[in-house]
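Running this now, will post back.
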Amino acid sequence: MSAAPPAPITARHPVQVAGRVIAALFSLSILVVIAFFVLDEANARFGIMALSALIVVLTKPLTQSTRLFTRIPWVGWTVDAALVVAFGWAAIWFFRVKQELYSGFFMANPQNITAGIMGMAVLLLLTVRAWGWSLVIMALTFVGFGFVGPWLPGLLEHWGMYLGDFMQIAWYSFDGVFGRTTGLVADTVLVFLIFGAVLERTGAGESLIHISTALTARIRGGAAHAAIVASGVFGMMSGSVAANIAGTGVFTIPMIKRQGFSANFAGAVETSASSGGQLTPPIMAAAVFVMADLVGMPFAMVIVGAALPALFKYIGLFAQVYASAIRMDIEPLPEDQVPVLTRRDWLNSLLVALPIAALMATFVVGKSPAVAGLVGVLTALVTGFVLNPDFRREPVRVLQALADGGIQAAQIMLAVGVIGIVLAVVNETGVAIRFATSIAAVGDDFLLLALILAMFGALILGMGLPTLPAYLIIAIMIAPAIIKAGVPPLAAHMFVLYFAVYSSIVPPIAYGCYIAAPIAGGHPLTTAFIALRLSIVGLLVPYVFVYSPSLLLVAGPFSWAELGSTILRLLVAIWMLASAFGGADPRVGKLGLAQRAVRLSLGAGAMIPLAPIWATAVIGAAILGFFFPRLELWKARPQ
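Update: finished.
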């Protein structure tokens, strides 16, 4: 009788425990450096990348990845040990030539080329473990593009790259893996991942869901509205749509289903809200800090610019849920089931409110994003100890929060390192400039067509990627194109960020829906199509603020008249589209196909920034709302 295969390792395995300990120390070191030290740039970037690689190796060991390595664990451990040794060898050579990098006398030779290849190979393999194949396949495609340039047709043709030059720019210079983007993320973003992990461990999530449920229980579809609020708040702090869905969806999705919504609808609401949180100020999944640097604007200005589009995006989501609840005859919770908020509940709301308020106050007084993040983390810890008795009784939660934040930071850093390889190829080949010039040429005569091309490019490049790496690559490749077409820089970057985020719900990849659907017990693709419908306003808002930049408040020439007309158009469009797609209106009840078609046309027309059309839409909405309900012809026939 053959022996049973060894059981897969668990989170309590000593190797993973060691990885979590190192991740906690990693987080602690980030906080300490922000508070007290200034490090050498090259040492800091390489050290953070090396620690990130080690943390991913230990917390996601190969023996846990496939059944083959579970059955033959020594092979997995051997491969992992080889990866650590290979990255260590790459580190030795990196620091050997560091002085040559500073002096500008670096010369590629077989030894440092081999070391660089080993380092990049480890980086790519570990990124597959952390994020799957999407990002790595894209990076390898760009590398291949760089080497075959002379044989490519038309716009894609370029001079090509030699191995030595590629290794110099991708690994040994400060333009690739250890370039400015890596430094920017390490300096300003990682602390916000720790901030989100600490908030989650203090119990802020449970408090927020409880309070949201109580406040929305008397609205039709209240459980879904509560989930939108909770997932939106935590989504703005998460670096990954998938991580936010997995973290909050286990609470919110069952809550939505219990009120009578279908499994697919519940998963779609959670996915839409979680992805929308990545676009919500003040944190915006830390992409706001990278955007501010790329656009050359103060962080506070970018936060202000993002506020109104995010508000209307969520109004659109609330409206769709409300209309769907009417169509499904889902009533508010009975009075005896409405949670009663106690003094303790309002105190617990401070677990979220105080850290975010402290963070924003630090911004307002002019401190750096890193310092603001540090203040937010410390405030979250203090409020957790003061307000949450469980947090006081279990101080190990602090270490768990640091470990969670360290693991998220390590995974993000590997993804950013791979983005560095892509950026090295882009800079070396000049493809981004030619791409931007081509789209700009289209945009000179047909801005809408240029925007549609940019949208599809952003959706394709962003598929399967977490928010920050997706935004980085799209901002480099596509944002300059629509800026050249005449779009203000902030509007252009906000445009590509929106579609980088919404790539998480666009079929066929729709990776956010593949996380939510199993939790809900639904089908991923059906969930994705419902999420697209629920997010229709969020998908259209970027076109609105490109044509009406006053909606961003700080993007360019500002006009109160334009802002007022844009707000009016959006409000009309939101309800027309929500009632058309949701199939119901509180004054009418369920809508027939004819009335839904009229509302869909009015909603689409209201989105177009031309005064006669939006004025017609407003008048049409008034007629539709006050006169058509009295005509039985327009009501839906009984089912």
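The two ends are 62 Å apart (CA to CA). More later if anyone needs it.
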